[in-house]
């Protein structure tokens, strides 16, 4: 797509919450919490700018987890007492959702006021929310109906975010890569085919201003073996501009995910593991990128960590310093690959 270089150095969006913000949330004072969030976001923007990131996010600091960008802004969902193995609190849909207001509009305004670097926003995908919150008999006729209602809300939110200056929007669906396996994983309440249809509704924009990219992160780890036909169906059915793919383990399956991409789609390679403190060997990372370059034009590529650093606020994957080192390595890799063209 030729202008990917604007966003060569990327990250999934969530960052480790600073200690002052954690303390303010625990204290339970709404005003103190809001002030701490504002200060933390301002510091996060400075942090990302110093790292020479080509996109800037609010770190998900105002939200409990990555789903909050939607769940905090709509009606129709009820929180349960369940907590999953991934640390995510359980939610169920009791009626078709309705938006209480624009998704993350205040967050977009805050970021654009702080920096000229391209603002990025991450949202849970409608198919993911439908697959994980639908329960039969609770007021919604089907997971597909729930997904379509969410897609309408998210698509409208994307339109507004773009109008406010957000240039990179990432939809997260951690379930999709499991569906590309030769022995597909449980898709949740939404079938693979229905998930593709729902995601497609969310990412279609009537017009795309220059430089705007809509990306999809389909999961954090490649399956053991990729069903090429299913991968091609995913990429063909969902008209996202960019696919954010794990590329930190050096497996054949990771390369197969890149190989299946259409020529006209960007790819963001998650080249460092956001779950372990040890830094990757840069020669190993570069060898993997060279292999990707044999099947995909690197002019249509970017690099990032493999996933967010704290998709659940209370469960950071690394320390703040370990996170910084990982992001510095991503920036270094980008310089090795593309020089100083960005």
Plain-language structure description:
- There is one protein chain.
- This protein is α/β, with parallel strands linked by helices.
- Helices cover 39% and strands 17% of the residues.
- It is built from 11 helices and 9 strands.
- The protein has helices spanning 19-27, 30-50, 68-71, 105-114, 126-133, 143-163, 192-203, 228-237, 252-259, 282-293, 320-338, and strands at 55-56, 74-83, 89-99, 118-124, 168-172, 213-217, 242-246, 266-272, 301-305.
- The protein has a 7-stranded parallel sheet with strand order 1-4-5-6-7-8-9. Strands 2-3 form a two-stranded antiparallel ribbon.
- Mean pLDDT is 93; it is low at 1-5.
Compact overview of the structure:
The chain has 11 helices and 9 strands.
Record keyword descriptors for this entry.
single chain, 342 residues, alpha/beta, 7-stranded parallel sheet, 11 helices, 17% strand, disordered N terminus
